[in-house]
Amino acid sequence: MDPEILTDPKVVAALITIGASLMGWLLLRGGGGIRAVGGRVLAAIGRQSFEKRYREFVAEEHRYLPIKGVKTRTPARIELDRVYVGLELRRRSGFATPSLGELRAKMWETQLELEELEELRESATPSELIERGLRSRRGRSERLSASAEQPYTVGEAIRSLGNRLVLLGGPGSGKTTLMKYLARTFALDEATSKLGLVERRLPILLPLREWAREQRTLTADHLAQYVVHPDILATCPEGFFQEQLQAGRCLVLLDGMDEVTTEAERNDVAGQINKLVSAYPGNRFVVTSRPAGHEGVSLAGFALLHVRDFSDEDVAEFARRWYEAVEMAARDVRDDDVAAAIARQEAEEQAGRLVQE
Length: 357
Known about the structure:
Layout: H1 9-29, H2 32-61, H3 80-83, E1 88-92, H4 100-123, H5 126-148, E2 149-153, H6 154-160, E3 164-168, H7 175-187, H8 191-195, E4 202-207, H9 208-213, H10 220-227, H11 230-233, H12 240-246, E5 250-255, H13 263-279, E6 284-289, H14 291-294, E7 303-307, H15 312-331, H16 339-356
Parallel strand pairs: 3-6, 3-7, 4-5, 5-6
Antiparallel strand pairs: 1-2, 1-7
Helix pairs in contact: 1-2, 2-7, 4-5, 10-12, 15-16
């Protein structure tokens, strides 16, 4: 048998159905041992079935971009995947503790500058000395600036900076949209193609504002009530999220630390996040906040990154994607339709006018 056949969703679903029927028959005819084995098999099938439905729910829940205060000439639902432009993250590392070798190099560099300055004092004019000092200052400033901000894509940050990230950005910088994009990407098992991450994780997206308002304790046994749609909550196996977290299979997305109202509440939520991370260290955790909402909050072992504002190129790309999505939705055409080319041409013209203005 071709091994690839076993990866076909239809084949897997058929095998599960056959297996469930067979185990049901064995349960009726067999003894206690068979019942125990059958119970475990049916439980595993139940968990797989629920995970499939949960992933489908998450992907559909974040399929469309929430639009507030924006009008289009005809009502249109804009798919997030069509308009999403990847954010660039910056990690401030200029104040990291230098190594002994780096300290020695800096001392040697400073000594050379002082010796050169002493020589110049004997022959240079005051204006030449001032210019020399300004060049030295500019050089140090440029070196500090270059080392203080290291750029990362979201995928690079997740892959290379460990399992704990805090993303800081101002209002409207795209933090929540990014979290929705990550949740949908992992739900569809597209992390490799879209983020360059060769891993499969179960996304858990939780707005911290809602959690704090309900005054819940951030533990695994409370997650299902907040992240599972009521239509499928009854089918959630007991302990499902605890098992997934214990196995280190999850991407936990905690959005909006700044939306937790008071500093005392934020500190309380931060303490609960630290406990959750400590209890399930094998998972990935991402927290977002405005900079002011992160002040005074202690999250242990989290790498801190800042969301960079859109560049001119990013703005142009978003405008093009936006108008294309609107035109495609308004005309109700698919990518492979003949009318799609007309829609794209119209979108390019509208985006060009907007960017020029």
